[in-house]
Amino acid sequence: MKLKLMLSAVLLSSFQLFFAQNTTNDTINSVQVNAASDTINKLTPIVVNTVANKEALKEEAKQLKTKMREEKKALKEAKKLEQEKKDFEKKQKAFAKQQDKILSGEKSVNKLKTKISNEEKSLANRKEKLEKKTSKEKLSDTEIEKENIKISKQQIKINKLNDDLTKAEEKLSKLR
Prior knowledge:
By secondary structure, this protein is mainly α. It has three helices and no strands.
């Protein structure tokens, strides 16, 4: 808008100078010509500067747009990297939990195995004591029956522990 205004002012003053009537007084004419040429000289660099400024502004706008595009791309990349980092951390936590479950499963299997072995030793000791006492004939029939009941209960307990052991081993194999 300013550019149009300036150009029209320059053109108007140049038309006035061109179509102006000649006066007899040369000093008035020369003063007017000098004044007009001064205004033209003053306005010409301004017009040139505004055109150059427009081009510079356009160029700067292009640079800003490209800079904004690059920043958006960088932001997307940063978000993508952050998401990948979160996913990686989730996977690590899940893996650690899985390892903990496997370790606890192995511990429970080992505990069950030791319990079974202890119970079997205890059962063997009971049977030996029963055999020794029966061979010496120190026990009555009711005491022998009571010992047999204890032995059968212990065997049932061992069988339950063996069932628990197989279940724990299956669970552990699934975890692996």
